[in-house]
Amino acid sequence: MSVADSIVIIPTYNEKENIEKIIRAVFGLEKRFHILVIDDGSPDGTAAIVQRMIDSGLSGRLHLIERSGKLGLGTAYITGFKWALANGYEYIFEMDADFSHDPNDLPRLYSACHDEGYDLAIGSRYVSGVNVVNWPIGRVLMSYFASYYVRLITGFKIHDTTAGFKCYKRRVLETIELDKIRFKGYGFQIEMKFTAYKIGFRIKEVPVVFVNRREGVSKMSGGIFSEALFGVMRLRWDGWFRKYPPLPR
Q: Is 120 helix (H, G, I), strand (E, B) or coil?
């Protein structure tokens, strides 16, 4: 395996229009990243595209885990986190395949953790206003007020609680009890941030511009946000009564 301290985890389902482009964009950055694609049985051949790229000379930098079907965003990331920890990466990223997250922002997230000493860096759409491009107004409002609702109920001061563009230091993922994370959809993003906050890790929101996908079909649904919204009360309950792991020294 070629040497890098950072890996970008990209979960996929039917992303044939985007996957090769996003991989080449990440590999085109000056900072060296590895990529782990976790594909949930895409019938459009997404995994086959990734495997072809691996076979064409990217073995060691590009990795693929194929799962049997749509098992949920949260379980995909948990699978990726465990793989990344087992393979020695120090900085572990989450990113979408559809260019809604700009690969050029990866070094900024890395810098927040590596250079500034934060444990978790969040690519935030809302820390400096509403930085969303080409989203329908209804979806913008749903996302923005979902984050506001989380802050209101939990007291958690992060502006973009559902953000899926992040960099973790490995010690965060080693400390969080990953098998106890319950949510599978965008509630997963809230639960991971809230758990890191309750343990006491240092978190920074890095302002980014979120651009709606240009190709492929969105996986967003009302059910995903329902899980996030109704799960927040349980997180609040946990915040009162659950015993979290201690902050590592």
A: strand
